[in-house]
Amino acid sequence: MYAHLRKIIFWIGPETSHLLIIKLLKCLRYIPFAKGILRLSFSIHDKNLEREVLGIKFKNPVGLAAGFDKNAEIVGELNCLGFGFVEIGSITPLPQPGNPKPRVFRLPADKALVNRMGINNVGAKAVIKNLHRCRAKKQIVVGGNLSKNATTFNVHAPADYERCFALLYNEVDYFVINVSCPNVTNLTQLQDRDILSQIIDRIINVRHYRDEYKPILLKISPDLNTAQLDDILNLVREKGIDGIVAVNTTVTREALHTPAGKVESIGKGGLSGAPLTAKAVEWVRYIHTKTQGQVPIIGVGGIMTPDDAVNMLAAGASLIQVYTGFIYNGPGFVKKILKRLKQEALWTQPSLP
Protein backbone atom coordinates (compact mmCIF):
# COMPACT_ATOMS: atom_id res chain seq x y z
CA MET A 1 0.00 0.00 0.00
CA TYR A 2 2.76 2.45 0.92
CA ALA A 3 4.45 1.83 -2.44
CA HIS A 4 1.47 3.50 -4.14
CA LEU A 5 1.29 6.29 -1.58
CA ARG A 6 5.02 6.90 -1.98
CA LYS A 7 4.49 7.74 -5.65
CA ILE A 8 2.26 10.61 -4.59
CA ILE A 9 4.62 11.71 -1.81
CA PHE A 10 7.61 11.60 -4.16
CA TRP A 11 5.70 13.69 -6.69
CA ILE A 12 5.84 16.51 -4.13
CA GLY A 13 9.14 18.18 -3.31
CA PRO A 14 11.11 16.42 -0.52
CA GLU A 15 11.04 19.22 2.02
CA THR A 16 7.41 20.12 1.29
CA SER A 17 6.28 16.51 1.68
CA HIS A 18 8.24 16.21 4.92
CA LEU A 19 6.52 19.26 6.38
CA LEU A 20 3.12 17.94 5.28
CA ILE A 21 3.75 14.62 7.02
CA ILE A 22 4.73 16.45 10.22
CA LYS A 23 1.52 18.51 10.07
CA LEU A 24 -0.58 15.42 9.35
CA LEU A 25 0.83 13.57 12.33
CA LYS A 26 0.25 16.61 14.55
CA CYS A 27 -3.38 16.75 13.40
CA LEU A 28 -3.94 13.13 14.46
CA ARG A 29 -3.67 14.10 18.13
CA TYR A 30 -6.99 15.92 17.77
CA ILE A 31 -8.81 12.95 16.20
CA PRO A 32 -10.41 10.54 18.70
CA PHE A 33 -8.77 7.08 18.80
CA ALA A 34 -6.25 8.03 16.07
CA LYS A 35 -3.21 7.36 18.23
CA GLY A 36 -4.66 4.07 19.40
CA ILE A 37 -5.17 2.96 15.81
CA LEU A 38 -1.58 3.91 14.99
CA ARG A 39 -0.29 1.88 17.93
CA LEU A 40 -2.36 -1.16 16.97
CA SER A 41 -1.21 -0.91 13.36
CA PHE A 42 2.48 -0.20 13.75
CA SER A 43 3.72 -1.07 17.24
CA ILE A 44 4.99 -4.33 18.69
CA HIS A 45 5.07 -4.74 22.45
CA ASP A 46 7.35 -7.57 23.46
CA LYS A 47 9.49 -7.75 26.59
CA ASN A 48 12.06 -9.71 24.64
CA LEU A 49 12.75 -6.68 22.44
CA GLU A 50 13.64 -4.46 25.40
CA ARG A 51 17.25 -3.41 25.94
CA GLU A 52 19.09 -1.58 28.64
CA VAL A 53 21.87 0.53 27.16
CA LEU A 54 23.65 3.56 28.66
CA GLY A 55 21.70 2.93 31.85
CA ILE A 56 18.44 3.59 29.97
CA LYS A 57 15.68 1.08 29.32
CA PHE A 58 14.56 1.05 25.67
CA LYS A 59 11.33 -0.74 24.72
CA ASN A 60 13.08 -1.87 21.53
CA PRO A 61 16.41 -1.14 19.82
CA VAL A 62 15.04 0.74 16.76
CA GLY A 63 15.15 4.52 16.92
CA LEU A 64 14.54 7.44 14.58
CA ALA A 65 17.70 9.35 13.70
CA ALA A 66 18.16 13.06 14.21
CA GLY A 67 16.91 15.29 11.40
CA PHE A 68 13.37 13.99 11.02
CA ASP A 69 11.73 15.58 14.05
CA LYS A 70 14.23 18.41 14.42
CA ASN A 71 12.04 20.53 16.67
CA ALA A 72 10.39 17.80 18.81
CA GLU A 73 6.96 18.42 17.30
CA ILE A 74 5.73 14.83 16.92
CA VAL A 75 7.54 12.75 19.55
CA GLY A 76 4.27 11.29 20.85
CA GLU A 77 3.07 10.32 17.38
CA LEU A 78 6.42 8.70 16.55
CA ASN A 79 6.05 6.63 19.69
CA CYS A 80 2.80 5.28 18.20
CA LEU A 81 4.69 4.24 15.05
CA GLY A 82 6.71 1.73 17.07
CA PHE A 83 10.03 3.49 17.59
CA GLY A 84 11.95 2.57 20.72
CA PHE A 85 13.47 6.04 20.89
CA VAL A 86 13.61 9.31 18.97
CA GLU A 87 16.58 11.62 18.55
CA ILE A 88 15.55 15.24 18.07
CA GLY A 89 17.64 17.98 16.47
CA SER A 90 20.19 18.93 15.63
CA ILE A 91 19.43 21.73 18.06
CA THR A 92 21.34 24.99 18.31
CA PRO A 93 21.19 27.58 21.12
CA LEU A 94 19.49 30.15 18.89
CA PRO A 95 16.99 29.61 16.05
CA GLN A 96 18.42 29.48 12.53
CA PRO A 97 16.82 29.12 9.09
CA GLY A 98 19.40 26.80 7.56
CA ASN A 99 20.64 26.93 3.99
CA PRO A 100 18.76 28.37 0.99
CA LYS A 101 16.20 26.13 -0.72
CA PRO A 102 16.10 23.74 -2.50
CA ARG A 103 18.19 21.77 -0.01
CA VAL A 104 16.84 18.20 -0.06
CA PHE A 105 16.98 15.89 -3.07
CA ARG A 106 15.85 12.33 -3.71
CA LEU A 107 17.87 9.78 -5.65
CA PRO A 108 15.27 6.98 -6.13
CA ALA A 109 17.56 4.90 -8.33
CA ASP A 110 19.92 4.62 -5.37
CA LYS A 111 17.30 4.66 -2.59
CA ALA A 112 19.11 7.68 -1.24
CA LEU A 113 18.73 11.30 -0.22
CA VAL A 114 21.05 14.28 -0.45
CA ASN A 115 20.46 17.10 2.00
CA ARG A 116 22.17 20.35 2.82
CA MET A 117 19.58 21.64 5.27
CA GLY A 118 22.15 23.51 7.31
CA ILE A 119 20.70 22.48 10.70
CA ASN A 120 17.57 24.59 10.45
CA ASN A 121 15.72 24.55 13.80
CA VAL A 122 13.68 26.74 16.12
CA GLY A 123 16.36 26.91 18.81
CA ALA A 124 16.73 25.20 22.19
CA LYS A 125 14.13 27.17 24.14
CA ALA A 126 11.37 26.60 21.56
CA VAL A 127 12.28 22.89 21.34
CA ILE A 128 11.82 22.63 25.11
CA LYS A 129 8.32 24.11 24.83
CA ASN A 130 7.46 21.57 22.13
CA LEU A 131 8.72 18.72 24.30
CA HIS A 132 6.54 19.86 27.18
CA ARG A 133 3.52 19.83 24.90
CA CYS A 134 4.00 16.43 23.32
CA ARG A 135 5.80 14.37 25.96
CA ALA A 136 3.88 14.92 29.17
CA LYS A 137 3.92 11.24 30.13
CA LYS A 138 7.45 10.49 28.89
CA GLN A 139 6.34 7.40 27.01
CA ILE A 140 9.45 7.20 24.84
CA VAL A 141 13.17 7.73 25.22
CA VAL A 142 14.31 11.00 23.64
CA GLY A 143 17.86 11.95 22.69
CA GLY A 144 19.02 15.49 22.06
CA ASN A 145 21.41 16.05 19.15
CA LEU A 146 23.41 19.23 19.73
CA SER A 147 25.25 21.57 17.39
CA LYS A 148 26.54 25.11 17.22
CA ASN A 149 24.90 28.00 15.42
CA ALA A 150 26.18 28.50 11.89
CA THR A 151 27.16 32.09 12.70
CA THR A 152 29.33 31.00 15.63
CA PHE A 153 33.01 30.80 14.79
CA ASN A 154 34.59 27.45 15.61
CA VAL A 155 36.78 29.01 18.30
CA HIS A 156 33.58 29.87 20.19
CA ALA A 157 31.80 26.57 19.42
CA PRO A 158 32.36 25.02 22.88
CA ALA A 159 30.22 27.76 24.44
CA ASP A 160 27.35 26.99 22.05
CA TYR A 161 27.42 23.27 22.88
CA GLU A 162 27.64 24.04 26.59
CA ARG A 163 24.65 26.40 26.49
CA CYS A 164 22.49 24.00 24.49
CA PHE A 165 23.46 21.11 26.77
CA ALA A 166 22.60 23.07 29.91
CA LEU A 167 19.22 24.23 28.56
CA LEU A 168 18.15 20.73 27.53
CA TYR A 169 19.63 18.78 30.42
CA ASN A 170 16.37 18.13 32.24
CA GLU A 171 14.37 17.58 29.04
CA VAL A 172 16.01 14.62 27.24
CA ASP A 173 17.39 11.22 28.23
CA TYR A 174 20.74 11.30 26.43
CA PHE A 175 22.83 13.72 24.36
CA VAL A 176 24.69 13.47 21.07
CA ILE A 177 27.49 15.87 20.14
CA ASN A 178 27.18 16.54 16.43
CA VAL A 179 30.48 17.71 14.99
CA SER A 180 30.22 15.64 11.80
CA CYS A 181 27.36 17.16 9.77
CA PRO A 182 28.75 18.14 6.34
CA ASN A 183 26.04 20.75 5.74
CA VAL A 184 27.35 23.57 7.94
CA THR A 185 30.49 25.37 6.85
CA ASN A 186 33.56 24.17 8.77
CA LEU A 187 31.51 22.13 11.27
CA THR A 188 33.42 18.93 10.54
CA GLN A 189 36.61 20.76 11.55
CA LEU A 190 35.31 20.41 15.10
CA GLN A 191 36.32 16.75 14.89
CA ASP A 192 39.88 18.00 15.33
CA ARG A 193 41.15 16.65 18.65
CA ASP A 194 41.90 20.00 20.34
CA ILE A 195 38.59 21.74 19.70
CA LEU A 196 36.58 18.54 20.27
CA SER A 197 38.36 18.08 23.58
CA GLN A 198 37.28 21.59 24.63
CA ILE A 199 33.65 20.90 23.68
CA ILE A 200 33.61 17.66 25.66
CA ASP A 201 35.26 19.25 28.70
CA ARG A 202 32.70 22.08 28.79
CA ILE A 203 29.63 19.85 28.70
CA ILE A 204 31.02 17.23 31.08
CA ASN A 205 31.72 20.02 33.53
CA VAL A 206 28.04 21.04 33.33
CA ARG A 207 26.97 17.45 33.97
CA HIS A 208 29.23 17.25 37.00
CA TYR A 209 26.96 19.69 38.85
CA ARG A 210 23.69 17.92 38.02
CA ASP A 211 21.97 15.41 40.25
CA GLU A 212 21.01 13.02 37.45
CA TYR A 213 23.60 11.48 35.14
CA LYS A 214 22.73 11.86 31.42
CA PRO A 215 24.82 9.89 28.88
CA ILE A 216 26.82 11.81 26.27
CA LEU A 217 27.57 10.28 22.87
CA LEU A 218 29.63 11.50 19.93
CA LYS A 219 28.36 11.28 16.33
CA ILE A 220 31.11 10.60 13.82
CA SER A 221 31.54 11.05 10.09
CA PRO A 222 31.90 8.14 7.66
CA ASP A 223 34.45 10.24 5.78
CA LEU A 224 37.16 10.01 8.44
CA ASN A 225 40.20 7.90 7.71
CA THR A 226 41.22 5.15 10.12
CA ALA A 227 43.90 7.23 11.82
CA GLN A 228 41.41 10.06 12.49
CA LEU A 229 38.85 7.63 13.83
CA ASP A 230 41.43 5.99 16.10
CA ASP A 231 42.35 9.41 17.47
CA ILE A 232 38.70 10.17 18.22
CA LEU A 233 38.22 6.78 19.91
CA ASN A 234 41.24 7.47 22.10
CA LEU A 235 39.70 10.81 23.05
CA VAL A 236 36.38 9.10 23.82
CA ARG A 237 38.15 6.79 26.25
CA GLU A 238 40.20 9.58 27.82
CA LYS A 239 37.25 11.90 28.38
CA GLY A 240 34.74 9.28 29.46
CA ILE A 241 32.28 9.77 26.61
CA ASP A 242 29.51 7.22 27.06
CA GLY A 243 29.00 6.05 23.47
CA ILE A 244 29.32 6.56 19.74
CA VAL A 245 26.73 7.25 17.04
CA ALA A 246 28.05 5.88 13.76
CA VAL A 247 27.63 7.36 11.20
CA ASN A 248 26.52 10.73 9.82
CA THR A 249 25.86 11.42 6.14
CA THR A 250 28.71 11.31 3.62
CA VAL A 251 30.04 13.78 1.08
CA THR A 252 31.22 10.99 -1.24
CA ARG A 253 29.28 10.11 -4.39
CA GLU A 254 30.83 6.76 -5.30
CA ALA A 255 29.17 4.02 -7.39
CA LEU A 256 25.77 5.72 -7.72
CA HIS A 257 23.16 4.56 -10.26
CA THR A 258 21.75 8.06 -10.63
CA PRO A 259 23.17 9.74 -13.78
CA ALA A 260 26.33 11.71 -12.98
CA GLY A 261 24.86 14.85 -14.54
CA LYS A 262 21.93 14.85 -12.13
CA VAL A 263 24.20 14.21 -9.16
CA GLU A 264 26.45 17.10 -10.20
CA SER A 265 23.47 19.42 -10.65
CA ILE A 266 22.37 18.73 -7.07
CA GLY A 267 25.71 19.93 -5.75
CA LYS A 268 26.90 19.78 -2.16
CA GLY A 269 25.16 17.94 0.66
CA GLY A 270 25.25 14.86 2.82
CA LEU A 271 24.30 11.59 1.14
CA SER A 272 22.23 9.05 3.09
CA GLY A 273 20.50 5.78 2.30
CA ALA A 274 21.54 2.59 0.57
CA PRO A 275 24.92 3.86 -0.76
CA LEU A 276 26.00 4.28 2.88
CA THR A 277 25.00 0.81 4.09
CA ALA A 278 28.30 -1.03 3.70
CA LYS A 279 30.42 1.82 5.09
CA ALA A 280 28.21 2.30 8.14
CA VAL A 281 28.31 -1.41 9.02
CA GLU A 282 32.08 -1.49 8.43
CA TRP A 283 32.63 1.48 10.75
CA VAL A 284 30.40 0.01 13.48
CA ARG A 285 32.27 -3.30 13.31
CA TYR A 286 35.62 -1.49 13.44
CA ILE A 287 34.62 0.61 16.48
CA HIS A 288 33.17 -2.42 18.26
CA THR A 289 36.39 -4.37 17.72
CA LYS A 290 38.69 -1.47 18.54
CA THR A 291 36.89 -0.75 21.82
CA GLN A 292 36.53 -4.48 22.63
CA GLY A 293 32.77 -4.05 22.80
CA GLN A 294 33.04 -1.77 25.85
CA VAL A 295 31.62 1.37 24.20
CA PRO A 296 27.91 1.35 23.30
CA ILE A 297 27.28 2.15 19.63
CA ILE A 298 24.13 3.47 17.99
CA GLY A 299 24.39 2.23 14.41
CA VAL A 300 22.86 4.49 11.77
CA GLY A 301 23.31 4.88 8.04
CA GLY A 302 21.87 2.90 5.16
CA ILE A 303 19.46 0.70 7.11
CA MET A 304 17.01 0.15 4.27
CA THR A 305 15.80 -3.40 4.98
CA PRO A 306 15.30 -5.66 8.01
CA ASP A 307 18.43 -7.53 6.87
CA ASP A 308 20.42 -4.30 7.12
CA ALA A 309 19.17 -3.88 10.68
CA VAL A 310 20.24 -7.43 11.56
CA ASN A 311 23.68 -6.85 10.02
CA MET A 312 24.17 -3.59 11.92
CA LEU A 313 23.35 -5.20 15.27
CA ALA A 314 25.49 -8.23 14.43
CA ALA A 315 28.40 -5.87 13.67
CA GLY A 316 28.26 -4.63 17.24
CA ALA A 317 25.65 -1.90 17.47
CA SER A 318 23.74 -1.82 20.75
CA LEU A 319 20.90 0.18 19.16
CA ILE A 320 20.08 1.27 15.64
CA GLN A 321 18.47 4.29 14.00
CA VAL A 322 16.67 4.69 10.69
CA TYR A 323 15.86 7.75 8.60
CA THR A 324 16.10 7.36 4.82
CA GLY A 325 14.88 3.76 5.10
CA PHE A 326 11.82 5.05 6.96
CA ILE A 327 11.08 7.49 4.15
CA TYR A 328 11.47 4.87 1.41
CA ASN A 329 9.64 2.08 3.28
CA GLY A 330 6.92 3.97 5.12
CA PRO A 331 5.38 3.78 8.59
CA GLY A 332 5.39 -0.03 8.69
CA PHE A 333 9.18 -0.21 8.44
CA VAL A 334 9.88 -0.31 12.18
CA LYS A 335 7.39 -3.14 12.68
CA LYS A 336 9.04 -5.15 9.88
CA ILE A 337 12.45 -4.72 11.50
CA LEU A 338 11.16 -5.72 14.93
CA LYS A 339 9.50 -8.84 13.55
CA ARG A 340 12.80 -9.82 11.96
CA LEU A 341 14.74 -9.15 15.15
CA LYS A 342 12.38 -11.42 17.06
CA GLN A 343 13.10 -14.15 14.53
CA GLU A 344 16.86 -13.61 14.78
CA ALA A 345 16.70 -13.41 18.59
CA LEU A 346 19.20 -10.54 18.50
CA TRP A 347 17.60 -9.20 21.63
CA THR A 348 19.52 -11.86 23.51
CA GLN A 349 22.73 -9.84 23.16
CA PRO A 350 23.87 -8.65 26.61
CA SER A 351 22.94 -5.15 27.70
CA LEU A 352 25.75 -2.62 27.85
CA PRO A 353 26.50 -0.14 30.61
Helix-strand layout with pairing:
Blueprint lengths: L1 H10 L2 H15 L5 H9 L8 E3 L2 E3 L3 E3 L10 H6 L4 E7 L12 E4 L4 E4 L8 H11 L6 E6 L10 H12 L5 E5 L14 H16 L7 E5 L5 H14 L3 E4 L13 H7 L3 E4 L3 H14 L6 E4 L5 H9 L4 E4 L1 H6 L3 H12 L9
Parallel strand pairs: 3-4, 3-13, 4-7, 7-8, 8-9, 9-10, 10-12, 12-13
Antiparallel strand pairs: 1-2, 5-6, 6-11
Summarize the structure.
By secondary structure, the chain is an alpha/beta fold. It has one domain: Aldolase class I (TIM Barrel, Alpha-Beta Barrel).
Distance between the termini: 40 Å
* CATH homologous superfamily caption: Aldolase class I
Strand order across the biggest sheet?
3-4-7-8-9-10-12-13
- The portion of residues assigned to helices is 25-40%
Overall, the morphology is: globular
Mean pLDDT equals: 94
Question: Can you give a write-up of this model?
Answer:
There is one protein chain. With 353 residues, this protein is of the alpha/beta class. The chain has one domain (2-345): Aldolase class I (TIM Barrel, Alpha-Beta Barrel), CATH 3.20.20.70. It has 13 helices and 13 strands. The protein has helices at 2-11, 14-28, 34-42, 75-80, 124-134, 157-168, 193-208, 226-239, 260-266, 277-290, 306-314, 324-329, 333-344; strands spanning 51-53, 56-58, 62-64, 85-91, 104-107, 112-115, 141-146, 174-178, 216-220, 243-246, 270-273, 297-300, 319-322. The strands form 3 sheets. An 8-stranded parallel β-barrel has the order 3-4-7-8-9-10-12-13, surrounded by 4 helices. Helix 4 links the parallel strand 3 (62-64) and strand 4. Helix 6 (157-168) packs parallel to helix 7 and helix 7 (193-208) packs parallel to helix 8. It is globular, with a radius of gyration of 19 Å. The model has no long low-confidence stretch (mean pLDDT 94).
